[in-house]
Specification:
single chain; alpha/beta
């Protein structure tokens, strides 16, 4: 039975999947609106720090839904998590500390968790996946987010026995490494986005975190810290993402990468496993006699695809994207500006730091700090120059933060 048929069955049985959504910003609102038209699924709880946002999302859902079901709204996500009328939670906050608290609360409540919070997933995902597995619950990233869509292509190719050389995404805006909420505010407001969220896109943190999540789900690593970030169309992407010995930029294959010029799509570059497959690929893809080919999905529908993951979790105890085990890569904190000793440092999408992908082994050797841990009362212990990574000796993390405590536990469970 297909997922759609399973949803129709739940609809016919008058037993819809009951969804609680934490975060009613741009992504959360869009997903809630999408669920209104999906058979066999309803929203029964919405939480946002701004109650008006939650109520607007509720009104939008009920205006389009065929059902006039009760929808709890609250500024306290715990009320939604623990509501008996909610069976699965979606984290659409994008905030690591809230995400960590929500993941713990949902685990204790014995409910599945779907993440539209890449930031927390790359910080404590391996630990949370292990804990949710132990409780026989689903912990998963979301369909529609680029890491999951790319993982789908990766597994599609691997299931056919192909060699996956590169996997990645198109980036649809240029990096502005010192972007901050003030510089992003005007554009953010025109797009009904949080200035912090847009700044995290503009300074590159979001792309770096997304490719870290892809790395942790596939075992592929960045070729270099920060990746290459080439520009090109599909054909140029294949040419440039080749080994240096063959005219490309890569030191090795088996890597994650981003490309300016092919957004909003995602891709994998593959090589057929034998001559028969290679010949058939050349014939079918109509690109001539090539050593490598690109498989490309030209869109990702972000939060609009999240209901597919919700359905997978509840109906089939399945996931969209999860860490394969111990961290493969990390998103480290790099200074956006000169930071003085004694300063309080703000986190993702703020004025102080941006995220950069790095192999986990290098992260350990360099004593770097995950950008997701820069939260609360994080204080600089030394002067840190602009564009320099933060190190464990240069900052004092907020020991009261849940995400910091959980990361310490993750480091114990997955020793270096």
């Amino acid at each position: 039975m297909t997922l759609y048929q399973q949803l129709l069955k739940r609809e016919q049985e008058n037993n819809p999947i009951k969804v609680g959504v934490i975060g009613a910003g741009q992504m959360g609102f869009g997903m809630i609106a999408q669920i209104a038209g999906i058979p066999g699924m309803v929203v029964t709880g919405i939480s946002d720090i701004n109650l008006e946002n939650a109520n607007k999302a509720k009104e939008a859902f009920l205006a389009s839904s065929k059902r006039a079901n009760e929808v709890l709204t609250s500024t306290d996500f715990r009320e939604v998590v623990n509501d008996a009328n909610v069976e699965v939670l979606v984290d659409a906050t994008g905030v690591t500390e809230v995400g960590a608290q929500l993941a713990l609360e949902t685990l204790v409540a014995k409910k599945h968790l779907v993440l539209l919070n890449v930031e927390v997933d790359v910080t404590i995902g391996p630990l949370m996946k292990r804990l949710y597995d132990t409780a026989d619950l689903v912990y998963t990233g979301s369909d529609g987010d680029e890491p999951a869509v790319t993982t789908g292509l990766f597994e599609f190719a691997k299931s056919m026995g192909m060699k996956v050389l590169v996997a990645g995404k198109g980036k649809n805006n240029k990096n502005i490494h010192d972007a901050n909420p003030d510089s992003a505010r005007e554009e953010a407001e025109s797009k009904h986005m949080s200035p912090h969220m847009l700044a995290a896109f503009q300074d590159g943190t979001k792309t770096m975190a997304e490719m870290t999540l892809l790395s942790n789900a596939t075992g592929l690593t960045p070729d270099i810290t920060g990746m290459h970030g080439i520009s090109g169309d599909l054909d140029q992407t294949v040419e440039k993402l080749d080994l240096t010995a063959d005219g490309g930029v890569l030191n090795s294959f088996g890597v994650v990468e981003y490309v300016n010029g092919i957004a909003p799509g995602v891709f994998v570059i593959v090589e057929g496993q034998n001559e028969g497959v290679k010949n058939e690929m050349n014939y079918l893809l109509k690109k001539g006699d090539r050593k490598h080919h690109i498989l490309y999905r030209p869109f990702h529908l972000a939060s609009l695809e999240t209901p597919l993951t919700i359905a997978k979790a509840v109906l089939n105890h399945d996931h969209a994207i999860v860490p394969i085990g111990a961290p493969v890569s990390e998103t480290i904190a790099v200074a956006k500006r000169d930071i003085k000793s004694g300063e309080t440092i703000d986190g993702i999408g703020g004025f102080s730091v941006r995220g950069v992908i790095e192999k986990h082994s290098e992260f350990v050797n360099n004593h770097h700090v995950p950008v997701g841990l820069i939260t609360g009362s994080t204080v600089a212990l030394k002067d840190i120059k602009k564009n320099k990574p933060l190190t464990t000796e240069a900052v004092s993390l907020d020991s009261t933060a849940t995400v910091v405590k959980l990361r310490a536990l993750q480091d114990e469970i997955f020793p270096n």
